[in-house]
Amino acid sequence: MQNFLESFTLKTLSRPTTTTQDVDLDLSDDSDADEKKPIEDDQETLLDLSVKYPDYDNTGSKTYEKACRKFDVVPSSKITRKMDSDKETTLDLKHYGLDSKGTMAVAMAMVVNTTLTKLNLKGNNIGESGMLYIQVMMSENTTITSLDISENNLKSFGAKSIGMMLHDNKFLRELNIGGNGFTDLDAPFLTKKIEEHMALHYLNLSHNLFGDLSGNSFEHMIAENVSLEELDLSWNQFRIIGAKKIASGLKENDHLKIVNASWNGYDDDGGAAFGDVLANNKYLIELDISCCRIGPEGFGKVMKGLKSNDTLEVLKIGKNNIPDSAVETAVDLLLTLDASTFKLECLDLSDVMLTGKSQERLAELKEPFPELEIIHGYTDSYGKRRMVGFGDMGQEALLCLKEYLEECNMTVTELFSRFDEDGSNSVDYDEFRQGIRDEGIPLSSEQVDHLIKYIDIDGDGDIDFSELVLKIKEITKKRAEEVAQRDAESAKRRR
């Protein structure tokens, strides 16, 4: 195997739709190559690269060290230790600062290694070259079953490369490619190969830029795939059309058990489409459509879908515009259902504030459905109830503003400069309100009022640019923590 790696040159595509080039895996040492001291892993002893290694490398660690010398990369003792251990199955390098060359070295080593089954390269700026080497490595590796290359901004090149990787590798069971800037134009390169993949059980496509234009691609992928059990499409840009396409696919799917389609913009019509899913799909056990601009009409259609459903255990539909009247109507509907066939164990209405009367109505469900947990009101990142305040509603309004910026590909600086005509880096409340209206940002007057109170930290009557930036950073961090918690819960379920 060592001689194989020292002489072998893998053929692949440098640009997946254009020309072919060689990915050079020649690990021959240059006689005058400078050896670098490896990165310390905590207080570990530094690796000694001057020793003479055996010709046969059955873990990939020696291949990794040679690749580091070849690419002029400082080797990491953590990586070699993980590769050499016969007890380790996971190589977790998220946010490890690998960049493209470091990723290339790891990829070459993983061609050899046969003990590690999980590889996490999240947030490493792996670049096109790194993605290319990952693609080639995965075409050779048959032991990695879980791969995380999320938050690497891979864009169109990465989408095409991942599609080719899935075509060649039939052993992968878990794939996280969220946060890579994939757009509607990239969707066909991914969805067709995912549709055909027979081993993939978990797929995370969250935090990308997929929208209604790619709806058909996702409809076919969901309807035709026969292996996926968990799918995450949260934090994309699907609207009503996209919701209907996703729902259409789910109606035909008989394998998916957990679907997270939250943080999109379905409105009531999209909510109704998911209600139709619940009425017809007999396999889903968890559905998350939180924060999707679903109103009372859409919520009502979703709840009506439960009348014909005897499999769903968890329904997350919080952070939507659900008034007390809609909740009370839902209680009336649930009370008519047969408790012996009703499987719902959790109805999550997080961030939906209810009056005392509505809470009393919810309490009526305890007797017929003693196993049903209903979450409502504002919650912290640990799921504990807390009272609503201006900050909470202001946070939701700020999230809408942040989403608007992302959809328009606009920076905070660009937006604020349009509000700030005199260039003072500060606007009064009236200027801020007028700016929101002029930009067409979808916030009501009440939401804008809460947003102002939330942003104006010092309470001086003006919105400073620095205050807006600080609050956006705070809310981004908070939501990232929520996502991490949800991902951890999801991973725990898969285990």
TrEMBL record:
Example GO molecular function: calcium ion binding
Sequence segments annotated as region (Disordered): 18-43
Coiled coil: none
InterPro entries, per the entry: EF-hand-dom_pair, EF_Hand_1_Ca_BS, EF_hand_dom, Leu-rich_rpt, LRR-containing, LRR_dom_sf
Superkingdom classification of source: Eukaryota
Ranges annotated as biased composition (Acidic residues): 23-33
Keywords: Calcium
PANTHER family given in the database record: F-BOX DOMAIN-CONTAINING PROTEIN-RELATED, LEUCINE RICH REPEAT FAMILY PROTEIN
Protein name: EF-hand domain-containing protein
Origin species: Mytilus coruscus (Sea mussel)
